[in-house]
Amino acid sequence: MQNGVKGVILKNKGNNKGTMLEFTTGAEIIARAAVDAGCDFFAGYPITPASGILSAMMKMLPASGGIAIQGEDELASIGYCLGASSAGRKVMTATSGPGISLYSENIGFAQMAELPIVIVNVQRMGPATGGATTNAEGDVEFVRWVTSGGYPFIAFCPTNLEESYRLTCEAFNWAERLRTPVFLLTCKDLVMNMDTADVNGYKRPSVIARSPFVADDEAISFKPYAYSALSDVPPFAPIGGDILTRINTSVHDQNGMLTKKPEVCDKALRHLNEKIMAHAGELEYVSTDLEKGADTVIVAYGAAARTARETIAMARSSGKKMSLVIVHSLWPVPEAALKKAVGAHKKIIVPEHNLRQYVLEIKRLFPDKEIRSVNRIDGCLITPEGMTDKLCT
Amino acid sequence: MYIDPSKKPYPFCPGCSHSMVLDAIGRALEKIKADPRRTVLVSDIGCVGLSDKYFNVHTFHGLHGRSFTYSCGIKLANPDLLVFNLVGDGGCGIGGNHLINAARRNIGIKVLCFNNLNFGMTGGQHSVTTPFGGKTATTPSGSPEKPFDLAGLVSAAGGSFVARVKALDKEALDETIAKAFQHEGFAFVDIWEICTAYYMPANDYKKQQMDELIASYGFKTGILREEKGREYSRVLNSAVRFQTSDVRRQTSTTLTATKFSHTLQKDSIGIIVAGSAGMKVIFAAHTFGKAALSCGLHVSQKDDYPVTVQSGHSVSDIKISREKINYLGIDKPDAVLIISQDGLKEVTDILPKLDNGAVVVYDKNLQIPKTEAKLIPIDLHGLDKTVHATAMLAKYLTLNKFMPIEALRSAITAISKDKIRELNLKAFEFGTND
């Protein structure tokens, strides 16, 4: 709880002497975190820059008691996952922008049918085939509005190996807890590059399982989509278990039966919104490095946030005051944490490897502040100097 | 009771074959005494997708054409379940890739295709099985397309149980569905139906016309193929090993304890190694990185190469830092090591930007463009080309002793394959003695 900001603070410690360092890729760490978080089913289709995760899962999962399979295409890969999730497995898939496009309808299905799944999007240059081996972070709004209907999704965004580990675990916990798809939004440079991690920096949160249906003494009165308050998460009974259940992608009543009744549809859809937004406060994952008396704060995420750490260090070493806020939970927008952290700063710099996406949220939250957008879409990273100099627009 | 009589009648049009097939499924489940708690109905989109609620088994209703993938996922997750798909000819068209791959893999799902030759739910449009000349909402002058023979398609894909049966042939239908359910591997039943709302009135297609059509195709009915073979969900689950050993051992990751001390003065240095495919540039950079890690330094490595990995350039950017690396880019490299013409081409734009604080170590046979950097040619003659990058990195280390030469020797000595280790040690000696 650094600087009084509520929510979950991710800390990044510097290297201490005598620590054990690891030289590895983000792909390896995401796969390892998935296994550690209890993932026991993975399906994916090869796509640069996400293939490393598929390969790592193919090696690791059978060894830890799980199933990993390469689907015949992206539609099949997420379909296998959703089938397995309905049978009670903890599932993950990994792809890049073109694959997310193909996942779109099934992501809506997972949302509607309340099937937990972790979806890793290793961003590359888009649109379409774009640049397979070129870095970009252009899918921020894409994952928020990835399917029809417009109901909310959860998306986590790491900046390094330690956070990739932690946030993969968190993604599983939230997917299971809220029975919903959760994105881990990362990018080519964070997944394919070799990078150094402090082994002690991997923090695994307690593993949370989805809440099971427990039959009461009287009679089994199971409803597959039961909720009292709209924000309740229906207790789960697996396909193939002792209690017969129904999974339904169409708008359904609490029994899982298709319905067109306006009052039932209204509740069913508000429930999809409420069960996420009721936890918006808990879902605020930010880290802050605030400096007293600073006028300017950089609000960043992903690879740009990583670079911003260097910008801050450079500014301070030359006597300039500057603060940094890193957003690790892009969706829902961590509004309270951002408002608290940005506080009295007058200027906000929002660096993004896209043409202005998240800055729209920042403008919405801070209509009275001076907000500068820094953008780069040529496949190269915004430089530490570029955050504050002429690249600013 | 697999079908709940209190929920009936079915919602289908009068005379629609769907009602007959659902009843037949109920009878087949009774015949094989399926445990409803271990039975899963997966329905596709179309009129048949309205079937879930009549069944007292687990039900799963998903997207159009993807029902095969859900049932495969369920079967892979729990091989003990009886998982069957209710799908139309439309679903077999849009989901054809999943259908043939489930058949090829022999995943033990049972696919019951309600083949009524058109799309009923959306208003009688043509499907992949609409006969040539068949009139539908989207082929008003008669279909100009040749239809799929679905049973033949699945057979060709390796489906281990394939049958064709007419919905109106009650006895054969009951028996075939029961046999499909009892088959261990993948099963497909092509059930020929009549759509009383659209295809029948538009084409005067009744029982007699169905018989004539099947005869004109030269199709047989009954079980067309029945083969034994290992069911895939069992194969995959038997490959699972619960091991007590650390799963990390399965991975290629490297844990490095700090064994040496470094003397790096700058915050970080950037090295670019530029060579060709087959010159083991990435491996050499990786080994160099491990050496730096053993000195407590942080390292990032970014590799660039064409997608046709055994051709063209291979360039590794190595950044080495005293603290955690935040910015992953190398804007002003401290060293550029060039070992081939392909590599030179990739770094040509960088060389003029270097100042005299940087060094360029290069194969003496290369023509290096003008640069202010300090130029150090090396004669790599006699060294295997797979260790030129190692020799260059060793050479660079003798020029900028930011870490002990022993750290690199130690990292090379840890290479597991004898031949590769020996070659790299030779290159190390070459680079450090030259």
Protein architecture, described:
The complex is a heterodimer of chains A (about 400) and B (about 425). Chain A has about 400 residues and is an alpha/beta fold. Chain A folds into 2 domains: about 1-200, Thiamin diphosphate (ThDP)-binding fold, Pyr/PP domains (Rossmann fold, 3-Layer(aba) Sandwich), CATH 3.40.50.970; about 285-385, Rossmann fold (3-Layer(aba) Sandwich), CATH 3.40.50. In chain A, about 35% of the residues lie in helices and about 20% in strands. Chain A has helices spanning about 25-35, 50-65, 75-85, 95-115, 140-145, 160-180, 190, 260-275, 300-315, 335-340, 360-365, and strands spanning about 10, 20-25, 40-45, 65-70, 90-95, 115-125, 130-135, 155, 180-185, 195-200, 245-250, 285-290, 295-300, 320-325, 330, 345-350, 370-375. In chain A, α1 runs parallel beside α2. Chain A starts with 7 loop residues before the first strand and ends in an 18-residue tail after the last strand. With about 425 residues, chain B is α/β, with parallel strands linked by helices. Chain B has helices at about 15-30, 65-75, 90-95, 95-105, 150-155, 170-180, 200-205, 205-215, 230-240, 280-295, 340-345, 390-400, 405-415, 420-434, and strands at about 40-45, 60, 80-90, 110-115, 120, 125, 160-165, 185-190, 220-225, 255, 270-275, 300-305, 315-320, 335-340, 360-365, 375-380. In chain B, the strands form 3 sheets. In chain B, strands 2-1-3-4-8-7-9 form a 7-stranded mixed sheet, sandwiched between helices. Chain B has a 6-stranded mixed sheet with strand order 12-13-11-14-15-16. A two-stranded antiparallel sheet of chain B has the order 5-6. In chain B, α1 (about 15-30) crosses α6 (about 170-180) and α10 crosses α13. The longest helix of chain B is centred in the C-terminal third of the chain and has 16 residues, at about 420-434. Chain B is elongated. The N and C termini of chain B lie far apart (about 85 Å). Classes of the chains: A alpha/beta (about 400), B alpha/beta (about 425). Chains A and B meet through β2, α1, α2, α3 and α4 of A and β2, α2, α4, β10 and α10 of B.
